[in-house]
């Protein structure tokens, strides 16, 4: 295994997946200015692939992710800004988003939590903390309905820019509070992880993108499922006249599933 | 002046000195000096090249300290990997700032020109120089007043930045409406992101 890039030596590992590991790090260390952290996504070498193929896949995925994010930025979709790209080492750096994922806020639990076994003690502790919905209300002042509308609007803006996310789940959305002035603050829904994103104008691709989110909703937040209608309503409003076609196609997709052809 | 360190990079690239000068009076002469230094022979030439061995950036097109720092970081990383697209790490800073791949355009747009009355001076150097020492050497090249880097925002020509990055028709700016502060934050984020991802722009 090749050694991890030096830039990660001082970084804090946050999480590790099959494709990449994520870190928090400081890019510009300077005694005279305040250090702001960045979010690093390290697509490590895959030992199971031929090194040449591995290098070119990593490179093209990083380029793809960065381009999709920039396109979103230019079209006013709330996404984290890019802070560093090192395609040869497989590192992508983003603006640090301070906040929580929608999955947590809707009570879907942390990813991978399903495997954790709870002891009775832990369960008691759980009761002591606010329920996620209270947190949504107290921390961000949002009702679930408003949140769903924000999700729909943001996805609509992204699809208007012809960017298809490819992995829409509630874990890939975050809420952050923006302080415009000292007294007032607004809450922003931020879409993250464009690792599977691509550009497409096809109604089919947009409908499938929504369908993936609908399924993710049904499995992680079974009790919030009716709320999904609000997401679609806000989405339709943002998309304008394109919505009728996408809605029709979404019905088709629901009947047949994500894959159009059943061959193979 | 601000000293930024990159502990993960090889020693000779591990530090960058960034200084901002206003009321600059010798921009035109400085430009000529840089061009002449390139073709000078012998020992004298080496000394002259060392005297102007900085990246001189026109701050009018720079939106924030993070903007220039991002360009410097991409340049030192390219140098560390032997992937410079221009001849030196300092010209690479200018190249990283420009949205297109044209090197002479980058230098014309972002480099020092006769009309500059403020200059951003960048030096990449690993040897643990005293900041005061670097400041003295920079001061020998630039006639102007050293001010904190945080003053950058006041010197930005936002109209020129928008034109340079072709942002005028972008949706992200239209939704800002009359909110100038918000618009500037949005522009800064787009511009910083473009600089950071320049190497995979194509």
Automatic annotation (TrEMBL), chain A:
- What EC number(s) are associated with this protein in UniProt? 2.7.11.1
What would be one Gene Ontology cellular-component term for the protein? EKC/KEOPS complex
The record's listing under Pfam families reads: Kdo (PF06293)
Presence of keyword Kinase: yes
The residue ranges of the Protein kinase domain are 8-264
Under the heading InterPro entries, the entry gives: Bud32 (IPR022495), Kinase-like_dom_sf (IPR011009), Prot_kinase_dom (IPR000719), Tyr_kinase_AS (IPR008266)
Main EC class the enzyme belongs to: transferase
For biological process, the GO terms are: tRNA processing; tRNA threonylcarbamoyladenosine metabolic process
GO MF term set: ATP binding; protein serine/threonine kinase activity
Q: Which UniProt keywords apply?
A: ATP-binding, Kinase, Nucleotide-binding, Serine/threonine-protein kinase, Transferase, tRNA processing
- Reactions that this protein is recorded to catalyse: L-threonyl-[protein] + ATP = O-phospho-L-threonyl-[protein] + ADP + H(+); L-seryl-[protein] + ATP = O-phospho-L-seryl-[protein] + ADP + H(+)
Question: NCBIfam families annotated for this entry?
Answer: arch_bud32 (TIGR03724)
Q: Which family does it belong to?
A: Belongs to the protein kinase superfamily. BUD32 family.
The protein here is known as non-specific serine/threonine protein kinase
Can you name the source organism? Answer: Heliocybe sulcata
TrEMBL record, chain B:
Return one Gene Ontology term, BP aspect. tRNA threonylcarbamoyladenosine modification
Q: Does the keyword Transport apply?
A: no
Record bears the keyword RNA-binding: no
Protein keywords: Nucleus, tRNA processing
Sequence intervals crossing the membrane? none
What InterPro entries has UniProt attached to this entry? CGI121/TPRKB (IPR013926), CGI121/TPRKB_sf (IPR036504)
Q: Which Pfam families match?
A: CGI-121
GO CC field: cytosol; EKC/KEOPS complex; nucleus
Spell out the protein name for this chain. EKC/KEOPS complex subunit CGI121
Give the family, as the similarity comment puts it: Belongs to the CGI121/TPRKB family.
Known SUPFAM superfamilies for this protein?
A: PF0523-like
Q: What role is this protein assigned?
A: Component of the EKC/KEOPS complex that is required for the formation of a threonylcarbamoyl group on adenosine at position 37 (t(6)A37) in tRNAs that read codons beginning with adenine. The complex is probably involved in the transfer of the threonylcarbamoyl moiety of threonylcarbamoyl-AMP (TC-AMP) to the N6 group of A37. CGI121 acts as an allosteric effector that regulates the t(6)A activity of the complex. The EKC/KEOPS complex also promotes both telomere uncapping and telomere elongation. The complex is required for efficient recruitment of transcriptional coactivators.
Name its species.
Heliocybe sulcata
Locations listed in the record: Nucleus
- Where is this protein primarily located? nucleus
């Amino acid at each position: 295994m090749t050694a991890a890039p030096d830039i990660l030596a001082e970084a804090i590992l946050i999480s590790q997946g099959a494709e990449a590991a994520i870190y928090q790090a400081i890019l510009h260390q300077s005694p005279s200015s305040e250090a702001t952290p960045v979010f690093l996504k390290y697509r490590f070498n895959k030992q199971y692939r031929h090194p040449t193929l591995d290098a070119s896949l990593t490179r093209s995925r990083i380029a793809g992710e960065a381009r999709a994010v920039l396109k979103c930025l230019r079209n006013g979709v709330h996404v984290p800004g890019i802070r560093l790209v090192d395609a040869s080492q497989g590192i992508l750096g983003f603006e640090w988003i301070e906040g929580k994922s929608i999955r947590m806020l809707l009570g879907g639990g942390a990813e991978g939590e399903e495997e954790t076994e709870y002891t009775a003690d832990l369960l008691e502790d759980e009761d002591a903390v606010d329920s996620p919905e209270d947190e949504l209300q107290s921390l961000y002042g949002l009702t679930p309905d408003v949140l769903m509308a924000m999700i729909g609007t943001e996805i609509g803006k992204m699809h208007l820019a012809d960017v298809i996310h490819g992995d829409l789940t509630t874990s890939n959305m975050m809420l952050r509070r923006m302080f415009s002035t000292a007294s007032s603050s607004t809450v922003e829904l931020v879409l993250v992880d464009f690792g599977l994103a691509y550009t497409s104008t096809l109604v089919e691709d947009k409908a499938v993108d929504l369908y993936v989110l609908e399924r993710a909703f049904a499995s992680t937040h079974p009790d919030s499922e009716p709320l999904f209608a609000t997401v679609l309503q806000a989405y339709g409003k943002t998309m304008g006249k394109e919505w009728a076609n996408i809605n029709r196609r979404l019905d088709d997709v629901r009947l047949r599933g994500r894959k159009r052809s059943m061959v193979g | 002046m601000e000293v930024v360190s990159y502990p993960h990079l090889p020693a000779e690239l591990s530090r960058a000195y960034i200084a901002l000068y206003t009321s600059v009076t010798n921009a035109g002469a400085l430009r000529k000096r840089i061009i002449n230094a390139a073709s000078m022979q012998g020992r004298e030439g080496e000394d002259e090249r060392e005297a102007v061995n900085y990246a001189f950036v026109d701050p009018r097109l720079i939106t924030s300290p993070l903007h220039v720092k991002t360009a410097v970081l991409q340049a030192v990383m390219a140098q560390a990997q032997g992937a410079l697209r221009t001849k030196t790490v300092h010209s690479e800073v200018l190249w990283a700032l420009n949205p297109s791949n044209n090197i002479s355009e980058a230098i014309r747009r972002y480099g020092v020109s006769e009309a500059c009355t403020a200059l951003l001076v960048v030096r990449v150097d690993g040897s643990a120089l005293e900041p005061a020492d670097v400041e003295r050497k920079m001061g020998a090249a630039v006639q102007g007043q050293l001010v904190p880097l945080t003053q950058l925002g006041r010197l930005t020509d936002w109209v020129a930045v928008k034109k340079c990055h072709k942002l005028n028709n972008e949706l992200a700016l239209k939704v800002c409406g009359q909110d100038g502060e918000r618009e500037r934050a949005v522009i800064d984020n787009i511009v910083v992101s473009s600089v950071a991802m320049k190497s995979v722009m194509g």
